[in-house]
Amino acid sequence: MIRIAIAGVAGRMGRTLVQAVLARSGDAQVTAGTTLKEDPQCGQDIGLIAGAGALEVIAVDSLSACVDDFDVLIDFTSPEATMQNVAFCSKHSKAIVIGTTGLSDEQKSALERASASTPILTAPNMSMGVNLTLRLLEMAAKALGDDVDIEIVEAHHRHKKDSPSGTALRMGEVIADSLGRDLNEVAVYGREGIGDERDRKTIGFATVRGGDIVGDHTVIFAGEGERLEISHKASSRMTFASGAVRAAIWLGSRGPGLYSIDDVLDLDAN
Ligand SMILES: NC(=O)C1=CN([C@@H]2O[C@H](COP(=O)(O)OP(=O)(O)OC[C@H]3O[C@@H](n4cnc5c(N)ncnc54)[C@H](OP(=O)(O)O)[C@@H]3O)[C@@H](O)[C@H]2O)C=CC1
Ligand SMILES: O=C(O)C1=N[C@H](C(=O)O)C[C@H](O)C1
């Protein structure tokens, strides 16, 4: 039985993660959860915070306060909080699953360094559908090559802080790699005013923020006379949470290393 702690347990993903662990049949347990000290839910039962009934586990304001209570931490918070949590997990030999997006290149390098002594699994999107979409994008990019213009459009709820989404950026990386391009050189983030004609080698990103959109991603491969669009639309955060819990259970029996959700999901099984 894996003992799971959830960082940011009062957040949108934190609450859904509690429900996702409860939905499993006895191979995992939520044994700890953190909130910020100033959060009004700090000190409350995390089951009640998640709207799932009391679990007799109280939300605490730091990982130090629950260090003996968990094996794997699941972290969907903010880049700053995630990096502090990685340092804590490294020091205390805990595995960590990271869903937080918007990490800088420097923060990603720090994750790589920490993974020499800590099991770390990170993915900008833990859903089966998105990770299958990444495979389809690779196939489409290779087949259509340099004959199309490629644009990535993503839409999320009004509270989302990072843009473009981590998933959109990963989609861009997969497509750029498939075409032998460097995303840092070819990405165009939004357009405004009068500019030059589109350069075919570029990969465009467009961001929509509004209401309660859970997460939509569409990649457009626009050619002459036809265009192909590959879309994924999430309608529930449970798709991300159940992937993350599955990843935590998998990571619980792994040694140090930097893993991805591809290592966990059986995308080739069916
Ligand atoms: N990989 C994936 O599949 C997915 C990734 N995400 C990513 O997960 C992250 C969180 O998203 P979401 O749940 O919507 O955001 P929320 O803002 O709802 O949740 C984040 C929570 O973390 C809390 N928090 C921040 N710092 C700390 C800290 N040091 N200790 C404890 N709690 C802390 C926040 O508190 P407060 O509100 O008080 O600041 C908040 O409750 C984002 O980066 C998002 O992009 C989201 C969905 C899927
Ligand atoms: O913030 C969110 O909500 C989401 N963030 C992730 C991202 O940035 O890609 C994944 C998902 O789309 C929801």
UniProtKB/TrEMBL annotation:
<dbReference type="InterPro" id="IPR022664">
    <property type="entry name" value="DapB_N_CS"/>
</dbReference>
<keyword id="KW-0457">Lysine biosynthesis</keyword>
<feature type="binding site">
    <location>
        <begin position="99"/>
        <end position="101"/>
    </location>
    <ligand>
        <name>NAD(+)</name>
    </ligand>
</feature>
<keyword id="KW-0560">Oxidoreductase</keyword>
<dbReference type="InterPro" id="IPR036291">
    <property type="entry name" value="NAD(P)-bd_dom_sf"/>
</dbReference>
<feature type="binding site">
    <location>
        <position position="56"/>
    </location>
    <ligand>
        <name>NAD(+)</name>
    </ligand>
</feature>
<dbReference type="InterPro" id="IPR000846">
    <property type="entry name" value="DapB_N"/>
</dbReference>
<dbReference type="InterPro" id="IPR023940">
    <property type="entry name" value="DHDPR_bac"/>
</dbReference>
<keyword id="KW-0963">Cytoplasm</keyword>
<feature type="binding site">
    <location>
        <begin position="123"/>
        <end position="126"/>
    </location>
    <ligand>
        <name>NAD(+)</name>
    </ligand>
</feature>
<feature type="active site" description="Proton donor/acceptor">
    <location>
        <position position="156"/>
    </location>
</feature>
<protein>
    <recommendedName>
        <fullName>4-hydroxy-tetrahydrodipicolinate reductase</fullName>
        <ecNumber>1.17.1.8</ecNumber>
    </recommendedName>
</protein>
<dbReference type="Pfam" id="PF01113">
    <property type="entry name" value="DapB_N"/>
</dbReference>
<dbReference type="GO" id="GO:0009089">
    <property type="term" value="P:lysine biosynthetic process via diaminopimelate"/>
</dbReference>
<dbReference type="Pfam" id="PF05173">
    <property type="entry name" value="DapB_C"/>
</dbReference>
<comment type="similarity">
    <text>Belongs to the DapB family.</text>
</comment>
<feature type="domain" description="Dihydrodipicolinate reductase C-terminal">
    <location>
        <begin position="129"/>
        <end position="265"/>
    </location>
</feature>
<dbReference type="GO" id="GO:0016726">
    <property type="term" value="F:oxidoreductase activity, acting on CH or CH2 groups, NAD or NADP as acceptor"/>
</dbReference>
<dbReference type="GO" id="GO:0019877">
    <property type="term" value="P:diaminopimelate biosynthetic process"/>
</dbReference>
<dbReference type="GO" id="GO:0051287">
    <property type="term" value="F:NAD binding"/>
</dbReference>
<dbReference type="InterPro" id="IPR022663">
    <property type="entry name" value="DapB_C"/>
</dbReference>
<dbReference type="GO" id="GO:0005829">
    <property type="term" value="C:cytosol"/>
</dbReference>
<keyword id="KW-0028">Amino-acid biosynthesis</keyword>
<feature type="binding site">
    <location>
        <position position="157"/>
    </location>
    <ligand>
        <name>(S)-2,3,4,5-tetrahydrodipicolinate</name>
    </ligand>
</feature>
<feature type="active site" description="Proton donor">
    <location>
        <position position="160"/>
    </location>
</feature>
<comment type="pathway">
    <text>Amino-acid biosynthesis; L-lysine biosynthesis via DAP pathway; (S)-tetrahydrodipicolinate from L-aspartate: step 4/4.</text>
</comment>
<comment type="subunit">
    <text>Homotetramer.</text>
</comment>
<feature type="binding site">
    <location>
        <begin position="8"/>
        <end position="13"/>
    </location>
    <ligand>
        <name>NAD(+)</name>
    </ligand>
</feature>
<feature type="domain" description="Dihydrodipicolinate reductase N-terminal">
    <location>
        <begin position="2"/>
        <end position="126"/>
    </location>
</feature>
<comment type="function">
    <text>Catalyzes the conversion of 4-hydroxy-tetrahydrodipicolinate (HTPA) to tetrahydrodipicolinate.</text>
</comment>
<keyword id="KW-0521">NADP</keyword>
<dbReference type="GO" id="GO:0050661">
    <property type="term" value="F:NADP binding"/>
</dbReference>
<keyword id="KW-0220">Diaminopimelate biosynthesis</keyword>
<feature type="binding site">
    <location>
        <begin position="166"/>
        <end position="167"/>
    </location>
    <ligand>
        <name>(S)-2,3,4,5-tetrahydrodipicolinate</name>
    </ligand>
</feature>
<dbReference type="GO" id="GO:0008839">
    <property type="term" value="F:4-hydroxy-tetrahydrodipicolinate reductase"/>
</dbReference>
<keyword id="KW-0520">NAD</keyword>
